[in-house]
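REVIEWER CHECKLIST
Item 1: Sequence provided? yes
Item 2: Single chain? yes
Item 3: Sequence as submitted:
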Amino acid sequence: MQKMWHCPSYDRFHLREWEDEFFLFDAASGDTHLLNALSMAILSLLKQRRLSVDGLIEKLPEAFGAVESPIKRDQLTGYLQQFEEMGLIVSSRSCD
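Item 4: Structure as written out by the authors:
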């Protein structure tokens, strides 16, 4: 079974967009993160549903109006691990 990812606390984030970057303030931790458009697309997809890496690879082109995913599988896995370490998302294993 693939690891699933989810952003269950998206509502606690305060977002500000500036050009192609996003400032995300996490009200629970007090942390502020500077994210790019790809990062925000990933978080947005994960606020809607639990997705595996393969599921995200399939859905991301829609977010960018592209034919192919804007990110490779290994890169995406790295993003997800960083997001989990930052407390932005959780995996199926971390919330069992």
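Item 5: Key structural point noted by reviewer: Residues 23 and 34 are 5 Å apart (CA to CA).
Item 6: Recommendation: ____
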